[in-house]
Amino acid sequence: FPGLADVSISQDIPVEGEITVPVGSHSPDEDYSTLDEPVKDTIMRDLKAVGKKFVHVMYPRKSSALLRDWDLWGPLVLCVSLALMLQGGSADSKDDGGPQFAEVFVIIWFGAVVITLNSKLLGGTISFFQSLCVLGYCVMPLTVAMLVCRLVLLVGTGTVSFIIRLIVVGAMFAWSTLASTAFLADSQPPNRKALVVYPIFLFYFVISWMILTFTPQ
Amino acid sequence: AEWGGFEDNMQGGGSAVIDMENMDDTSGSSFEDMGEMHQRMKEEEEEEAEGEAGAGEEEDGEFLGMKGLRGQLGRQVADQMWQVGKRQASRAFSLYANIDILRPYFDVEPVQVRARLLESMIPVKMINFPQKIAGELYGPLMLVFTLVAILLHGMKTSDTIIREGTLMGTAIGTCFGYWLGVSSFMYFLAYLCNAQITMVQMLSLLGYGLFGHCITLFVTYNIHFHSLFYIFWLVVGGLSTLRMVAVLVSRTVGHTQRLILCGTLAALHMLFLLYLHFAYHKVVEGILDTLEGPNMPPFQRVARDIPVVSNAVLNTTAKAIALTL
User: Fold this and answer.
1) pTM of the model
2) Structural domain for A134, as ranges
3) Predicted complex: ipTM over 0.85
């Protein structure tokens, strides 16, 4: 810097200035700051995003909206509600009464993590949290099945109710598996789809089994 | 104006400040995207740095000398941000790299998995030269998880009560404990007996041997006939054990070593199937259990009529092993 060769600094000049370095290219959302908007706007925006994803799970089409903007609010709400509904149901009211809350919670999250790692190791192009997001949202049909089972169990606990519950849980399990496969299998090389679908099938099967064998105290 | 000069210097080389700005924007992007972006930026930087390394360093030196106090403050701030960025980037990269270590073991096609599943039930005849073992972990891992699911089903239908634990925890602990523990033990024995087998191959072999267990338990947890279970135990369990034993024998030299290895593996494998059936499955004939239900300690829900038979089986097996050794 030849022009600054004769600058001399004395002790009593205060150090001041701006630390921000003006960058050449502005990123697109630099002018849009979400810190100043009212809380209601933030919450409504997040709720709308979650709601849109629920609709995507209900009608699984090959859209990339679910994958692009992943969030884990929906899976958390579904997991917590499923675990609450499954808690404390067993014929025996001794120390261990059916799957406890922590058990269901851990099964769902560890199962999802294992499936994600498996699909990544098999050469998948989907990212870690995107996969967690999809697997979590696709638990929704099974949560609906749990609600229906609880209502049916309020009415009666005979063979008829078991058959109804079996049909409902079976249908929802198939829906869950198909929905998550529609989103996840596309990110795999085409001849390895079966390798990714099997763990998903097993995961939802275990959850469906927990729902089907739930008997209230 | 002086900060403008700073800007020129920074923009030259893919700077740390620009890195930090991009890194703060984490909405909607994932952890590895960060890692990949950093890796790309690091590579770009390295390429550029090779080109203008000399000029850049000299400029920096002059910069410090020129600017005195103000320049040093700015330099330290930039340095700190660069360190933080670099640390985050290397952490992201090491996380990515850890998964990549396992990647070659998952490189299979569905046809291969199916072929290996069927092969695991067919004992090989040629034991004179080493049989090839595929070092693959996808099939064994899926089989262990399937075994966990089948075990859960068996425990649920038999109303097994587990104190100080959970059904799921017990099932996972048992299956993974068997797979990892027995594999490690057999690998250690193989090391002692000079057998040519690696840890991954041992894990793979034992994992595929669990296919027989899965079939047996799946059938016998639903159809409760003792004689059926014993037939399945001998035939299906025996076939998969024979296959594992034959492969191990083909890779070991020396009679004593072969006997030690194969005897241990056969005993552990068959006994595990026996254990899984009896510890986690209440027999339909055990109506007496319900009469004294609260007083029964857990894990002992076996029917009254078979302790004699199972003891006899265990005794003969133990005697057979003792004779061979």
Assistant:
1) 0.67
2) 65-87+98-213
3) no
